[in-house]
Design brief:
Layout: H1 8-12, E1 29-34, H2 41-52, E2 55-58, H3 59-67, H4 77-88, H5 94-102, E3 113-117, H6 123-135, E4 142-147, H7 150-158, E5 160-162, E6 169-171, H8 198-212, H9 214-221, E7 225-229, H10 234-249
Parallel strand pairs: 1-3, 1-4, 2-3, 4-7
Antiparallel strand pairs: 5-6
The structure holds BIS(adenosine)-5'-pentaphosphate.
The site of BIS(adenosine)-5'-pentaphosphate has 36 residues, from helix 2, helix 3, helix 4, strand 6 and helix 10.
């Protein structure tokens, strides 16, 4: 995660502000990460944000933050329903997602830049993002689509453990915490996501093919798509991503 900000504005929404303003990079990066569940978007978002000084904006983290009771208020009916969809592995309805992202729209003009992870996920959400970017007078630098073999996805999802507090992501084999079951950063007990259970993760993979994969064509037609094969270690994939971005956009 970006150590420069606590992401309170994104995680909580409303009038909440982040405790610290990120430093302004010379050239803020504004990226969307696409790819199937478990491909490593969140892992790459954390590495890219640390490198670019940008803020990781994950819609999944908004829901998990609410689920962990961190929002401090009882869930609204819309959030209760969103969490039910998430547990089953289904997409949360566009209307709810667009309301949540819309009320956090100013995060898109954050001076540090942003890495969107998990949004947009449908063509309707992509069109809404185009409008939000226009309203906030910013443009996307690129949309990165990570791709790998389906067998790898199942292994990555089954071994994932997450920190409910700081949202750090681990893997039992590929990226174990220093002390088993405990977050390296904040000492909180790690958990397995309910939607990582086999029945929910199967649904998520199917939903991705039906609803989210069409976004690849959407962004290819706009000339914004960069496809990257997500094989190798997270650091190798990060290195590939940074090299491609540098070639396309120049140094950050
Ligand atoms: P979200 O949180 O966005 O989940 P997702 O897209 O399914 O993606 P994941 O978080 O499962 O995977 P990832 O690609 O980030 O992989 P990670 O880096 O963790 O959404 C969750 C749910 O919220 C949705 O199903 C939906 O219900 C709802 N939702 C969210 N946004 C929505 C929207 N816009 N519209 C509607 N509904 C929405 O890596 C996975 C594991 O692999 C980790 O353990 C990691 O350590 C490991 N790993 C990473 N890279 C490697 C590597 N190179 N080699 C080996 N292991 C690796």
């Amino acid at each position: 995660m970006n150590p420069q900000t606590d992401r309170a504005a994104w995680l909580l929404g409303g009038d909440v502000r982040c405790n610290t303003e990120p430093a302004k990079p010379v050239r803020p990066r504004r990226l969307v990460l696409l790819g199937p569940p478990g491909v490593g978007k969140g892992t790459q978002a954390a590495l890219l944000c640390a490198a670019y000084g940008a803020c990781p904006l994950s819609t999944g983290d908004i829901f998990r933050h609410a689920l962990a009771g961190c929002a401090g208020e009882p869930h609204t009916k819309a959030m209760e329903s969103a969490l039910d969809h998430m547990h089953r592995g289904e997409l949360v309805p566009d209307r709810t997602v667009l309301e949540l992202v819309g009320e956090r729209g100013r995060c898109l003009s954050c001076r540090g830049g942003f890495i969107l992870d998990g949004f947009p996920r449908t063509v309707a959400q992509a069109e809404a993002l185009d409008h939000l970017l226009y309203v906030h007078k910013v443009t996307l630098d690129a949309v990165i689509s990570y791709e790998t073999r389906p067998e790898s996805l199942a292994i990555r999802i089954a071994g994932r453990r997450t920190c409910p507090s700081c949202k750090a992501v681990y893997h039992l084999e590929a990226k174990p915490p220093r002390q088993a079951g405990v977050c390296d950063h904040c000492g909180t007990a790690l958990v397995q996501r309910t939607d990582d259970r086999p029945e929910a993760s199967m649904v998520r993979l199917k939903v991705y093919e039906k609803s989210t994969a069409p976004l690849i064509a959407y962004y290819r037609e706009k000339g914004q798509l960069i496809s990257i094969t997500a094989t190798g270690t997270p650091e190798e994939i990060f290195g590939k991503t940074v090299a491609i971005m540098k070639k396309k956009l120049g140094p950050a």
